[in-house]
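Quick one, tokens below:
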């Protein structure tokens, strides 16, 4: 099985690139984030032409997550139990069964600044996610992937001193990630295509991508059976190049058949 996660930063703006990437890369399952369309505006017909069933959860110009699968897509769930809102729950989580594995696509709240109410919302959201996953990871093989808007360690940002006082790197955010992993998940760290750091996000500002001044904030977490089956995982940096890219690159993971 090949699966991927990608914050496309508007599925409409990125649709030609997404369709070409799907044709070239051939993932069986894709977790998408920041689709920025309502569910009825998702390009289900276009991806269906390439053999993918889709499930989308969106709210127009903001947020939005989706799943694409060519190996089955069942038991689709929007959001998760106990999910807090800001003030209402947002389109930030969708999950479904694909080929015997439960895939969850996440777009974690940004947090804005540590002084902003959005930061407290982010921490509450991650805590509620942890509680839900604690109950789900024992149910069978699972992948939790997406834009977590947290860099797990200082090694996951190009220069830690630049981020002092900012979100994405604070101790409470990183502790929230560690608590999620502690329920029985493994961080499947991809290999980079450039440099020593598997960054997945680069700001659009001139030179940031070419100088590899990035962050690893797109993450793939798997249950033990999934983690043990990983044959390869890579940041598809090529998808960040060219005209009109997303500011994130996809992560592509290849799995051997799962044991049992």
């Amino acid at each position: 099985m090949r699966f991927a996660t990608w914050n496309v930063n508007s599925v409409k703006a990125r649709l030609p690139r997404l369709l070409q990437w799907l044709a070239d890369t051939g993932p069986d399952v894709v977790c998408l984030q920041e689709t920025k369309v309502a569910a009825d505006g998702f390009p289900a017909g276009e991806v269906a032409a390439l053999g993918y069933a889709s499930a989308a959860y969106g709210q127009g110009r903001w947020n939005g997550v989706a799943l694409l699968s060519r190996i089955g897509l069942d038991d689709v769930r929007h959001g998760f139990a106990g999910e807090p809102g800001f003030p209402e729950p947002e389109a930030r989580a969708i999950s479904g069964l694909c080929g015997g594995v439960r895939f969850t696509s996440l777009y974690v709240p940004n947090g804005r600044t540590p002084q902003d109410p959005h930061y407290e919302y982010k921490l509450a959201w991650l805590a509620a996610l942890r509680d839900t996953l604690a109950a789900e990871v024992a149910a069978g093989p699972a992948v939790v992937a997406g834009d977590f808007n947290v860099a797990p360690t200082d090694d996951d940002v190009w220069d830690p001193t630049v981020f002092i006082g900012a979100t994405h790197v604070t101790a409470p955010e990183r502790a929230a990630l560690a608590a999620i992993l502690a329920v029985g998940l493994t961080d499947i760290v991809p290999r980079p295509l450039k440099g020593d750091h598997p960054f997945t996000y680069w700001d659009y500002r001139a030179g940031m991508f070419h100088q590899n001044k990035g962050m690893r904030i797109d993450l793939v977490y798997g249950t033990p059976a999934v983690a043990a089956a990983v044959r390869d995982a890579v940041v598809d940096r090529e998808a960040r190049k060219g005209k009109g890219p997303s500011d994130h690159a996809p992560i592509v993971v290849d799995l051997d058949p799962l044991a049992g």
